[in-house]
Design a protein that fits this description.
This protein has 13 helices and 14 strands. It is an alpha/beta fold and about 400 residues long. The protein has two domains: about 240 residues, Type I PLP-dependent aspartate aminotransferase-like (Major domain) (Aspartate Aminotransferase, domain 2, 3-Layer(aba) Sandwich); about 140 residues, Alpha-Beta Complex (Aspartate Aminotransferase, domain 1), CATH 3.90.1150.10. The strands form three sheets. The chain has a seven-stranded mixed beta sheet, with helices on both faces. Strands 10-12-14-13 form a four-stranded antiparallel beta sheet. Strand 2, helix 4 and strand 3 form a beta-alpha-beta unit. The two termini are about 25 Å apart. The chain binds pyridoxal-5'-phosphate. The site of pyridoxal-5'-phosphate (PLP) has 16 residues, from helix 3 and helix 4. Pfam families: DegT_DnrJ_EryC1.
Length: about 400
């Protein structure tokens, strides 16, 4: 049997610019972001400034992880213990996890067939719960109808926090993902759009929210060592009532991130070339239903999704197994037990009882996902499509599905 031999989890090596910056920093021994000498700005502070500039916002704060950025965002926006927090039913486990860690109670909202949030159910959930907070996950890089989402948030006075783990570099109607809400949260973990192993960033244009976030992240009193935060003199009483929840980024990670940030647009183009090649392949295959994208969305295609609505569960399982034999780790959000990043809301047993989510149940039951690392080229995409087609034909020839 023909097999695809490349790894879906292998990212590109870091560039010489990143490696040189890391080595130069290690030679100084000053890896802590606030450990600076006279006249030095520091890699983390510079990264934050460049990140904020790239998004066109005044403030950015780097921290320990994307999930940690979400926790900080909720706390900085004033979440109190036991507060309800709206959240998409289809998201990654660190999102409900960060709501839980910050003391909130997740209220899940149903999704549309394109996997994005259902604005009508958002409205219903807001009315039922009275929630004042909403963590909107642009899950797997799909941005839903932001006009409709913002209208619901405005009507109900909801503070929006965007989870942009898969949408750094993406826009909706020309506006960068992460700049619609009060806070945008990003991840620089290896499988996202910038790679520092682990890491997170949050962005905002609200000075008080950012002051709290800076203090929460563990800034001691080094507010003057930030280049993309409110001026140091303005921290006033905030510094006396906000806890230090230690979760800073270090200069080593920031040093490898700065050259990558400068390359983000070029990488986006390469990701989208892979995405469009895969998408064109899927469009030619029977039984593979592509996930539509909003016309105002300008995305980064670092992964691709498709649905298999005409197949039984047994046949989807057979297809996934056939793909695995061919070296293609198709992730299926409908499998009985969660594996890898495919956990579903019903596997987050610590959540309070969930609202009925009929559409999420139906959509996730047949939803599949593939990562598209930049170590692939368009020929690899063609091979993957061919092998998935083989796996599908094998399943169909053995099954009763017509
Ligand atoms: C990766 C991810 C996160 C969290 O990022 P970490 O840096 O791993 O904590 C949050 N939301 C989504 C949708 C993600 O994919």
């Amino acid at each position: 049997m023909r097999r695809f031999s490349k790894s879906f989890t292998q990212q590109e090596p870091l560039s010489d610019a990143s490696i040189d910056a890391a080595v130069a920093l290690m030679r100084t021994g000053r890896l802590h972001r606030y450990n600076l000498v006279e006249g030095e700005k520091g890699e983390t502070a510079l990264f934050e400034q460049e990140f904020a500039d790239a998004l066109g916002v005044p403030f950015a704060l780097a921290c320990a992880s994307g999930g940690y950025a979400l926790q900080l965002a909720l706390r900085a926006c004033g979440l109190q213990h036991g507060d309800a927090v709206l959240c998409n039913a289809f998201t990654l486990s660190p999102v409900p996890g960060s709501i839980h860690a910050a003391g909130g109670e997740a209220v899940l909202v149903d999704i549309l067939d394109d996997t994005t949030i259902d604005p009508d159910d958002l409205e219903a959930a807001a009315r039922e719960s009275g929630a004042r907070f909403f963590v909107l996950s642009h899950m797997r890089g799909h941005i839903g109808d932001m006009d409709a989402v913002m209208a619901v948030c405005e009507t109900h006075g909801i503070t929006l926090i965007e989870d942009c783990a898969h949408t750094l570099g993406a826009n909706f109607a020309g506006k960068p993902s992460g700049t619609f809400g009060k806070v945008g949260c990003y991840s620089t973990q290896t499988y996202k759009h910038l790679n520092s192993g682990e890491g997170g960033v949050l962005s905002s244009d609200d000075p008080e929210v950012m002051r709290r976030a800076v203090i929460l992240s563990g800034s001691y009193m080094f507010y003057d060592r930030h280049l993309a935060a409110p001026e140091a003199a303005g921290y006033g009483d905030t510094r006396l009532v906000t806890p230090n929840m230690s979760g800073r980024m270090d200069d080593l990670r920031a040093a490898v991130l700065r050259p990558q940030l400068a390359e983000l647009e070029a990488r986006k183009e390469r990701w989208n070339a892979l995405y469009h090649r895969m998408d064109a392949g899927l469009s030619r295959m029977e039984r593979f239903e592509r996930v539509p994208r909003h016309e105002k969305e300008d995305f980064v295609g670092s992964s691709i999704q498709f649905r298999l609505p005409s197949l039984t569960r047994e046949d989807i399982a057979g297809f996934v197994a056939g793909c695995a034999e061919r070296g293609i780790p198709v992730k299926w959000f409908g499998q009985a037990q969660p594996a890898d990043y495919t956990s579903r809301y019903d596997s987050w047993g610590y959540l309070p009882a969930t609202r009925p989510l009929p559409n999420a149940d139906r959509v996730l039951a047949t939803l599949c996902d593939l990562r598209l690392p930049l170590t692939f080229d368009e020929k690899d995409c063609d091979d993957i499509i061919q092998l998935m087609d083989d796996a599908m034909n094998e399943v169909i020839s053995k099954s009763n599905t017509v």
